[in-house]
Amino acid sequence: MQKPFTHDGSYHQELEIYWDEQFALTLETWGEGNAWNEIQSLLVNCRGRVLDIACGTGKVLEILKSYQMLELYGCDISPYLIGKAINRGIQKNRVIACDATRLPYKNNFYDYSYSIGSLEHFTEQGIEMFISECYRVTKFNSCHMIPVTRSGNDEGWVNMTQSFFYNSIDWWMRKFKLSYSTVLTLESQWNDDVSTGKWFVCIK
Fold first, then answer.
1. Residue range 120-161, pLDDT digits in tens
2. What is the assigned CATH class of domain 117-204?
3. 177 Cβ partners below 8 Å, 6+ apart?
4. CA dihedral (5, 117, 103, 107) positive or negative
5. How far apart are CA 9 and CA 147, in angstroms?
6. All structural domains of the chain with their residue ranges
């Protein structure tokens, strides 16, 4: 693994990947047997509006459609991926292409929100803005699944298939607590060769 930490505060985000067909196919199976089961458990007793932030092709929205007590919405930076979501049957008026650091929704419009494997790909400033926007638009809980280091060390901004922040639970807790006073961590069954998944449950 390459680990070029960017001391000058600059980051190269591979945003073009969100318009790539092969990447879109990867999103169709990425969380099977782990994160996608876990978000169902986290929302099973919830009611009201729910926002999937960085919803990609809408796969998780499709999985959750049997939860009739939820009014599901999604957003993603890529109009290409949003088109995939609409093509799979997600209502056109429920998904939108937008920047997650500047969400186009009113304060407390959603009862709940979540993201899965996306927040780590934002710049450090973007992470803080993303979390702040989650706080603003979400009335109750916001849940985020993020890969963290197995060692507990902060490795910074690293390059693999995509660039991302490869840091510790403590680093992420500090980011979430800039907006939320109560943040719980839960184990995720998601993992890869270098990371283990953690859910950060942010309670407003």
1. 999 999 999 999 999 999 999 999 999 999 999 999 999 877
2. alpha beta
3. 183
4. negative
5. 21
6. 46-98, 117-204
